[in-house]
Each structure stands twice: as C-alpha cells, then as structure tokens.
Amino acid sequence: MNLTLAIVLGAAGAILILVGAVGGGFTVPGISMPPVGVFPRLISFVVGAVLVVFALGVYEWDTTGGPGATTTAQQPPSTSPATQAPAEWQPSTDQYLPDPVIAPVVTPPGYEVYLYTDVSTAASIEAGLSNGQNVAIICTMQGEPVTSAMTGHTSSLWNAVAVDNGTVGFVPDVYVDTQTFQPTMPHCDSVLNSSTSA
To answer: Does the residue 13 lie in any domain?
Structure first.
C-alpha cells in the first residue's frame, strides 16, 4: 500500500518538475500539459520537488518496516520444552535498565509468540505471548535469525523482555512492534556489566 502511494506521489512530482523545467506544452500518456507562465512553472517545480521527496520518504518508511509492518506467529518447536536444557544466562528482574522500552507483541489473533530462555527457538519456552500483550524490553542480543512469513523480513535481533507476571526471557524482535528493526535498548552485555558494577 505504501509502495503504491510512493509511486503515485513520485510520478506526480516528476510531472510537475517537468512542467516547471520546460514550461508545459507536452503530452504524457493520458495527460496533456498546456504551456504555462513563469510563476506557475516555479510553483510546479517546488510542489513537484516536495512530492518527490515525500514519495522517497514513504518508500523508505515502507522498505524499512514502519509501524504498519506486520509479522506472523512463530511456529511451536517440535520437541517438548520440558526436555530442553535451560539457557546459560536468563535475565532477571534486578538487571532492568532504569527505563525499559514498552512495546506490544504482534501476532495474528489466536496465535502465540513464545518467550524463550535463550536467543534460539530451540531453547526452553518460558511463556506464550498473545497479540497486543505489552512487554518491557530490558536489553537486546543477536541470536538465531527469524523470518516473518508475512513481511519476509529476517532479523537475528532478539529482545530480552519482562512480562506483567514477572517472567523474563527472550523474544525475536520481528514479533515485537518497536516501530524499527534496529535495537531499542543496549546490548545485554552492557546491562549485565552496568548491573554488576552498580
């Protein structure tokens, strides 16, 4: 949807810039542009440039996954969580940064995203998270790449999060609506170092 808008805005902007540059008097498929004076040429050029810049912004927003980006639910592992070994490190509530980022889980209604003990879908499952459930992002780490089936976006970024009941674990960043694919909190090593030195 955003890509279509970017194309329409870009095409309209390009036509207006062309009118501003040559003064009209040309025909493009389905549109005949009469000759225009100096002032309308100037206005056309400025408005066209604004539309092209706006189209580029919409395109960038669409390709980098703005708030409208959607993700799909993660499939449960084939093995039982009870038989899997616990992770080497599990964040605890005393390792919170002063202001964790609060963001909702994004998954189709009726499906759950899993909260793991490590940055891998092979790790033990701590809890199931439903669509719209808020989590507090404590820190971030790189781990197993996870791909969203709906957007096709792949990311190895994982968020260490805490949920309302105090459970803490890791969830793939592609299933948390942080409005960016970049880390929203420092690396977990920084959090561990700051909490142990405090």
So the answer is: yes
Instruction: Find all residues with CB under 8 Å of 100, minimum gap 6, and list them.
Output: 136, 137, 138, 162, 185
Same domain? For 120 and 47 the reply is no
Range of the domain at 129: 81-190
Give the CA radius of gyration of the chain: 24
Q: What is the DSSP string of 26-76?
A: EEETTEEE----HHHHHHHHHHHHHHHHHHHHHHHHHHTT-TT----PPPP
Task: Quote the CA–CA distance of 143 and 189 in Å, as a whole number.
Answer: 13
Specify whether 37 is located in the same domain as 93. Answer: no
What CA–CA distance (Å, rounded) separates 121 from 15?
50
Structure confidence by residue, pLDDT tens digits, 74-130: 554 544 444 444 444 444 444 444 578 898 888 877 788 899 999 999 999 999 988
Q: What pLDDT, in 10s, does the model give residues 21-32? A: 767 666 766 667
Residue 101 forms beta bridges with which residues?
A: 137
Could you give the number of structural domains in the chain? 2
